[in-house]
Amino acid sequence: MMKKCCLINYVLIMLLFLISIVSCTAQEKEIPITSNSKKAIEKFKEGRDLSENTEYEMARRTLDEALSLDPEFALAYLYRSLYGSNYNDQMNHLENAMKYISKVSESEKDLIIMYKAMYDSNEAVMWEKLDKLLELYPSNKRINSIAGDLNRFWNKDEDALMYYNLVVGMDNKFVPAIEGMGYVFMNMEQYDNAADWFKKLMEIRPDLASPYNSYANALIQQEQFDEAIVYYKKAMEKDEFFYYPIRRIANIYVNQKNYNEARKYFRQYVEVATQFNSKYLAFLNIANTYLYEDDKENALKAFDEYIQLAVQNNMPYYEIWGNIYQGYIITCCGDPKEGLKYYEKVLTMIDESDLNEEQKHEHRINVSMMKSNAYIESEDFQNSEKELENCKILVANLESTFLNDMIDVISSYQDIKQNNYEAALSKLNNVKSKHVLITYYSALAYDLKGDKEQAKNYYSKLINNKESNLNIALRYKEIEEKLAE
Asked: Nearest CA to 213 among 202, 222, 204, 203?
């Protein structure tokens, strides 16, 4: 009998041991979700699934339901910040995620801190937390998909493809990874490959709007404009809240230089958009259409509307950006001294705003870069050099590749204006980030040093860009004239 009892106890101990192993393995596959409400967790998962299927409006509403059930639900606040309808909305929810971070597991903390670092342009912390999560959850499709996204956003295309492929191997119907794969190929200018992945997603999820929209985006790059419009309209038919194709159709008319028609669609976009982010983007694009036509005054008026919308809705972040844009347009259109007046006004606005210190710091970096550019345009190189040094001080603690690259891009323009073309090209060739100014300054450097063939290659890239872009719009007439020479 004693032997039998010992055997039973041994079996029970072994079972408990095995259960603990299974429990640990399960934790390594999924990040814990901490909440005091089971119903809130259910709503969170539902909202997460909706967001992964790019059904953002419904995702926001469902995550709000989760938060109403548990007002201290840190992970729900994080996800809600990722799909915020405007900057205020995003930051308020992110602040709440940080507020309740002490109540969650270590993995949830790492995820929240990772995204906070991303918002703060602190790349070192962002990558550190991502690496830690990947080590803990190597077979988690969501973490690997996030890794794909972050590598894609930072133009690490091969790494992004590796992570997305891992996810597709785990779940060949996971929308974020399949769509992400398509956009990596878009980034690599492999538009046929991109279209194939978007078509694959249409076959897997014909009920969703996003795959049709993404496929149309690939068609635009191949100048199949009429077919793209067909797919944009299909996307809108799939989801009453999916209005983004209106802006994309407007962009087609920009490509066709039918700016009046483009403005009609951008205006429609302002009217139907449920997110302020979308409205501000529409006004930016309206300004671009006027700049393509070399109409500075109406471009500035479009930003007057942008600023008015921000003031009416107590959104100082956007009010500041609207004034920065106006200063930049004035600077690039030949009046850098007036542009500098805008930037000084903006610095006062930043100091007097109710933005938090991180947000104020972000804007001060932007203004410092703009001031550097204005001094360079004025050929006041003593002050431009001082302002570039100020930029470096402002970004020093962030360890941001993108911001450091942008300082080098602006510095390359200073080299160009001082006839140091080789120095400018050397800096531009070492920049890892992607930005249209890199292409423009490369074209300018080659042009001024007398290499007209190389210059035309870069000017052609700018003129063939299929996206409405402020920096191209400001220089569009100049680029056309250069290519016509």
From this structure: 202
